[in-house]
Each structure stands twice: as structure tokens, then as C-alpha cells.
Amino acid sequence: MLFRVDPTSAAPLGDQIAACVRGALAEGTLDAGERLPAARVLADSLGVNVHTVLRGYQQLREEGLIELRRGRGAVVVDGASPPGRARLLERVRELADEARKLGLSEDEVVSLVRAAF
Amino acid sequence: MKHARTRLPAVVALPFLLALVLDLVFYAALRDRLPTRLATHFTGTGTADGHTGQTAFVLAVSAALVLLGALWAAATLRPGRPAGGARTLAGSAWGTAAFLGFLTAATLRANLRTLARLPLWQLAEAAGVAAVAAGIGLLLVRYVPKPDPEPSTGLPRARVELADGEVAGWARRVDSWWVLAGAATLLAAGVVVWAVLGRVFAVPALAIGFLTLLFARPYVTVDRRGVAVTTGWLPWPRIRVPLSRIGGASHRNVDALMDFGGWGHRVRPGATGIILRSGDALVVRRTGGREFVVTVDGAAEAAALLNTLAERDRGQASR
Hints:
The structure holds two protein chains of two kinds. By secondary structure, chain A is mostly helical. Chain A has one domain: Winged helix-like DNA-binding domain superfamily/Winged helix DNA-binding domain (Arc Repressor Mutant, subunit A), CATH 1.10.10. Chain A has five helices and three strands. A two-stranded antiparallel sheet of chain A has the order 2-3. In chain A, α1 crosses α3 and α2 crosses α3. Chain A is globular, with a radius of gyration of 15 Å. Chain B is built from nine helices and eleven strands. In chain B, a hairpin with a 4-residue loop joins β10 and β11. The longest helix of chain B has 29 residues. Chain B is elongated, with a radius of gyration of 26 Å. The chains are: A mainly alpha, B alpha+beta. At the A-B interface, β1 and α2 of A face β3 and β4 of B.
């Protein structure tokens, strides 16, 4: 799949790599069960450190979008949920950004979300 | 256009027909002087070690020539032939037909003597005749009008929106289970041969098996350095076309057998390919005009990125 990062941006490169995968999932260009490139190959291709790529992959794993397995590499989780989940996660990040700009604390945002639920 | 469609099959089928007619005429002329059972198989020293009845031999040769002619003609009718495919087909058809036709005639002539002999040097003679015939085939194919160029080359080239300073990379592994299976089979065969016959005999199977394993699941990457096919876990061996040598990229469906004559690292007139399956393939046009083709899923995205990066590279080079 296509990865694009901007080294001059303030956002950490690992976050940018994770955002690429989230975006591809949301748009449907990346399917469930598909394999992400090996961290070493991607790092070499983008000219970034392997650990940076792995940080991005780790983030995606914590979000439940991919599975990291020894020997199999990074694979998008199976099932119908990944695209919807990826879209939701994109919005959660937007929400967090917006809240930070407004000077809201984490607790305040969480209680707002809880109230809306 | 109609001529182009019918002329090429005619050019490749003609030598087989000629060989058939000449051999039959030759046979008819010699028939009375030939033994009932012809010597048809010869050892390395030229002495006969196999015999066939006259009718069976003539029928077998005729059937072989007709079948080969039909096969070659059919091969020209497949759509999506690469440029230069017509020359290969015509040359090989004329060469093959001449080789078989000459050997048949030589076999018949050898049978005129009471002790039929067909020395090995006659094979060299047959090869010489085949080379001359192949040349005739190549000359004839010049009179065949060229088919329309591939539609994919005429399509507008896809791009990816890329901001200044943004770094982009595309990577994808080509999964082909059957190459893995082939490598495993070769390695297993090597181990068995080692156990039964000894190390020396096992080396070729093990070496080829290991090489196949290395490239069984290659990575195709498109980035600031160009397009590369690598093993994914070793820096070498790898095949790379740098951005400065790339004229443009597109994607199209390739048929491994019909377009590249098989699987693996293929070299054709006008194109080189890493062909591990039939289907979607990234097609890179080098600045020299040759094509570099690699079968990979999602090739459209890779082609778009490669066009964008190559253009950016040209912009920087001219600045």
C-alpha cells in the first residue's frame, strides 16, 4: 500500500505512518486480512528508522486495527469492522485535537463523550 | 487490419507446410528403394538402435508437422502479444520446421544404405539449415503489418497528489504459494538425492531450490530511489530501476505463458519481467523504451506514485 510522511510536520512520523493505514482502511483501498509491508522494508523505503515504523504499527495494534504476529508480520484484522473502526478512530483523533486546541482536559472530554453516549 | 490478422499465422504455418510437402515428395521418390522397416533412432556414434514401419514413420512425421504448425499459428492469434513477439514466433517457426524437415529427409536418405547410419554431424547440419530458415522467417515477418499498439500505453498517466517535501513509499509483497511449493519440492528432492546418490548430485537441486526460495515472495517497492524488486530480507540480490531511467509507468493484465513464455525472471524482445503469476502487473517504461514488468497486486497505485516521483525527479534535475 501507499505510505506518505512529511518529515517537516510537527506530528511524529510513527503517527503519520499509522494515519496512512487508517486512511487506507477508511477509504477501502486496504482490505481486511491484507498484509502490511514488513517494518524493515517500509523503513528503508521511507528513509526512516525501523523503530519509528514499529511504533506506528504498535499504535494500530492497540487500536485493534491490525494484528502483529511473529513470522506473519502485520496483518489487518479479519472481519467487516476495520473500515468503520478506522473511520471512527480518525474522528476520535480529530476530537482530541480539537479539544486540545480549546484547552479542554482529558477528563472533561471523556465526560463529554460519556454524556453523549 | 484484416491482413495483419491473417498474414502472421500464414507466415508461421507456411514452413511446416513446406517441410511436410518436401518430405512427402522426397519419400515418394525414394519409396521403392527403402526397407519396409526404417531405422529411425540412432545412437551417439550414428548407428541405428530403433526401427519403425514406413507408414507409421510417415504418419508420425506428418502429424507432428501439422500439429506444430497449428500450435504456432494459434500462438499468433493470442491478443496482447508484446512488440517483437511476431519476430520470435516467425523465426522459431521457420527454424523448427526446417530442423524437423531436414532430419526427416536425412533419416530417409540414411535408410537407402543396407546399414543405415546417421552421424551426429548431421544434427549440426540440421541446425545450420534451421538457422538459415529462421533468417528467412525473420525477413518474411517484415512484410506483416504491425498490429495496433497496446491500448494501455495510450491512456493518460495516473498521478498521486504529493506535497513538496512529502516523502512517499509504496511496498507490497508478491505472494505466490506455488513458487514456495516448487522451492520446497526442489529442496526435498535435493535432500533425497543427497541421501541416495551423494552430495555431488544434490548440489544443483539444492542450489536452484535455495535461489527459488530467496525470490519466492519478493517485495516490490516504489520510492524516492525508483522501483525495486528485492527478497525483502536481504540487501542483495535485487533489481532496481532508478527514477532517472524511468519514462513512465502504467499497469495492465499480463498472461505469464502467452506474454512472457513462462514464470520467473523473463527476458523478451522489448521487455524484461519478474513474472510470478498471471494478472495485474506494474509496467515501467524505461527511458530507452524497454519495458520492465513485475506482477503485483495494486499495481495501479504503484504506477501512479512512480509517475509522480519520476516527474518530481525530472523537475529537480532540470532545476
